[in-house]
Specification:
The complex is a heterodimer of chains A (335) and B (347). With 335 residues, chain A is of the alpha/beta class. Helix content of chain A is 27%, strand content 23%. In chain A, a hairpin with a 2-residue loop joins strand 9 and strand 10. The radius of gyration of chain B is 25 Å and the shape is elongated. The complex binds adenosine-5'-triphosphate (ATP) and magnesium ion (MG).
Chain lengths: 335, 347
């Protein structure tokens, strides 16, 4: 095993692909594929927040779940602290799960409605055989307090709580085993706007305290803007642009990024920006467009875009490896 | 163990459906009565007071006639003993059950042939069948056998169905495909014929009949469990458990099956009524339990061949209708109270 260098990322995803079979016909055989994730690469360092942004259905959840090996990826490598997750034995993977956790998109769905809050938060300890029953109860109390719930919540059931409170339970469960990385799959998008910032602040506090790294998934840039160190913009299973948060805002290099930025509501009405409204619908991931998948909706598309699949590569004259874009017309465009 | 408030709500809703709830209470009463049928319907006395001693012959070994100063050493005839003690009037006494007959004994008369019409004086409240056995006794004990049969069948079917069905839904793939084909072929086998063929070769015992029925009975619950498990397994709470490192065993038993209880419970009453009907029809056709086992199907057949003895068919049909109605009412109420489709957890 290679020695860990300080610059080695905590998680690195290389050319990850996740294609779901589409079954059909009388014999339920495969009649096609959903190209849910098609060649995604990204890295996350310790304590860092990487935002993953894209419209609904572009494959963000699938990226998160494939990283955690909840789905068996079709191709590609997921390396966590130098270990290739796709090659681990069942036992090794189980132990490694203590280091990487997930907060789910839907707080109504992600808690088992038949278990008490106490059981739900205790489950990680039970699964990994940590502590005696009393010690576990103590830890559950601490965790609940840490996420802002009262210890009395332990004997109650999920449906007795609001969405925000349930999401706190989900966070407590994810924190239980002291993970190094948490994949936050749109943790606030199902919540009221007034609750969203509370949950985001909680996540930020926890990150400070515990040195967590986040892969923060969201469907618009507004949410990830303030909390991410780096942001990956995803479209139809592919990464379109990957850069430091500031760079991405100040100098978007991909037409899709620039369209997403212009979609962020601006608080100051006097500050007018040219609105780049995306025309058309997102194509189906079963039949993704040829060449650049974005060409069907791109205002700058040329004939060449229909043929060449753009590679994710460093922007010339940009911030080096820290700004990557997948567009054959970078440099020509003034976004 | 703390009962989930959702479950409590379901039970409360079940109680609020009056027809179903009363049927349920009635059914429980019938079960209890049939469980202690020996105390109510029996040719053995409840208590015998003889020369200062008390005897309780209901359960345990048979007491020979000599125990009570009679001239024979086969089992005491308590009805005669009772009459005799009354005649002698020496302070000895026999307390008989309300129906002092057992379902196997034939109560014959010297001057007439059975079936005998109902008679309160003779304590044949529903009359006797074509061989002189008390119909009420046969109904009560037949009910007990039919219910035991249905419940045992239910447990067997559920054990097979839940394990295979949830495995199919959970693992999918080849295992699922193979069992799907097996089920498709299996469900096209005309099972009544198969049972009739088997029963005409060997006379099935009670357990064997349950087993034969179970060979065909597991399919519907398996299919349901497969569908439900398949749906549950990709829900986020299962993914969350998996992300924590939970084993498949834990996921199935701690997460998925508890979430399918509602469906299992909803199925049960209909499964019970199905079991009763199946056993009765097999007995009616003469391919069920061997005679002289008390059985509704056999009574039904007697009623059919002795149409002028209206009390035979009358009482067995009434018993059938009442029982099936009660079970169906329970089933309806359970379904209404537990139906997951009616019940959303979203507030
Ligand atoms: N288990 C699956 N089997 C087949 N197709 C799937 C599966 N999971 C996801 N997909 C498909 O893959 C595509 C990407 O789905 P995914 O849930 O990853 O998108 P998303 O970006 O998370 O969307 P959202 O913002 O709505 O959560 C969708 O077209 C979806 O229908
Ligand atoms: Mg999603």
């Amino acid at each position: 095993m290679n020695k860990k260098s300080p610059s080695e990322p905590l998680l690195s995803v290389e050319h990850l692909k996740m294609h779901f079979p589409v079954l059909g016909g009388i014999f339920r055989h495969q009649v096609g594929k959903v190209y849910a994730v098609d060649d995604v690469s990204l890295t996350i360092s310790r304590g860092e927040t990487v935002g993953l942004v894209g419209e609904s259905g572009c494959g963000k959840t699938t990226v998160g779940r494939s990283i955690l090996q909840l789905y068996q990826p079709t191709a590609g490598r997921v390396t966590f602290e130098g270990k290739d997750l796709t090659r681990l034995s069942r036992k090794e993977m189980r132990d490694l799960r203590r280091d990487m956790q997930m907060i789910f998109q839907d707080p109504f769905e992600s808690l088992n409605s038949r278990h008490t809050i106490g059981n739900i938060v205790e489950e990680p300890f039970v699964i990994h055989g940590i502590g005696t029953a009393d010690e576990r109860q103590q830890k559950v109390k601490e965790l609940l307090r840490r996420v802002g719930l009262s210890a009395r919540a332990r004997t109650r059931f999920p449906h007795e709580f609001s969405g925000g409170q349930r999401q706190r339970v989900g966070i407590a469960r994810a924190l239980a085993l002291n993970p190094k990385l948490i994949i936050c799959d749109e943790p606030v998008s199902a919540l009221d706007v007034s609750i969203q910032s509370q949950i985001l602040n909680l996540l930020l506090d926890l990150q400070q305290e515990m040195g967590l790294a986040y892969l923060f998934i969201a469907h618009d840039l507004a949410v990830v803007k303030h909390i991410s160190d780096r942001i990956a913009v995803m479209y139809l299973g592919k990464i379109m642009e990957y850069a430091d948060a500031d760079t991405l805002y100040a100098h978007p290099a991909h037409p899709y990024t620039s369209a997403l930025i212009s979609a962020i509501p601006v608080p100051d009405p006097t500050c007018r920006r040219k609105a780049e409204i995306l025309s058309g619908d997102v194509p189906s991931p079963i039949h993704p467009p040829s060449g650049c998948v974005f060409h069907t909706r791109c205002p700058y598309a040329v004939d060449q875009c229909k043929e060449t699949i753009p590679e994710l590569a460093a922007v010339a004259g940009g911030a080096g490896d820290n700004h990557q874009v997948a567009c054959i017309r970078t440099g020509e465009l003034r976004l | 163990m703390k009962l989930n408030p959702l479950t409590i709500r379901k039970i409360r809703r079940f109680k609020s459906i009056k027809r179903g709830y009363f049927s349920f209470l009635l059914f429980v009463m019938m079960l209890t009565v049939s469980l202690f049928a020996e105390l109510l319907v029996n040719n053995r006395a409840l208590v015998v007071h003889y020369e200062g001693h008390y005897y309780f012959p209901t359960y345990g070994h048979m007491l020979p006639g000599t125990t009570f100063g009679l001239a024979y050493d086969y089992e005491t005839n308590y009805r005669e003993l009772s009459a005799r003690f009354e005649r002698e009037n020496k302070g000895n006494r026999v307390w008989l059950p309300p129906v002092p007959y057992n379902p196997y004994e034939t109560d014959l008369k010297t001057d007439a042939y059975p079936p005998f019409a109902p008679s309160i004086a003779e304590k044949h409240y529903l009359g006797t069948d074509a061989v002189g056995r008390d119909i009420l006794a046969r109904l009560v004990y037949g009910f007990r056998i039919a219910i035991a049969f249905s419940l045992l069948l239910l447990v067997t079917n559920y054990t097979i169905g839940v394990s295979i069905g949830s495995a199919m839904g959970f693992w999918g793939g080849k295992f699922d495909l193979i069992f799907q084909r097996i089920i498709e072929i299996w469900s096209n086998v005309p099972f009544l014929y198969v049972i009739i063929i088997i029963s005409s070769i060997v006379v099935p015992s009670f357990l064997m009949l349950v087993l034969i029925m179970a060979i065909f009975g597991w399919i519907s619950i398996t299919w349901t469990m497969r569908t439900v498990t398949y749906k549950e397994r990709s829900r986020e709470y299962v993914l969350a458990a998996r992300a924590l490192g939970a084993s498949n065993f834990r996921i199935i038993f701690k997460h998925i099956i508890p979430n399918t209880i509602a469906i299992i419970v909803t199925f049960a009453p209909f499964s019970v009524s199905g079991g009763i009907v199946a056993l009765t029809s097999l007995d009616y056709l003469g391919f069920g339990l061997p005679p002289p086992t008390p059985s509704w199907g056999e009574l039904l057949r007697q009623g059919w061949t002795n149409l002028d003895a209206w009390w035979i068919s009358g009482s067995v049909i009434a018993a059938m209708v009442i029982t099936l109605m009660i079970v169906t009412f329970i089933g309806e109420a359970v379904r209404e109270a537990f139906d997951p489709k009616l019940h959303t957890t979203y507030e």
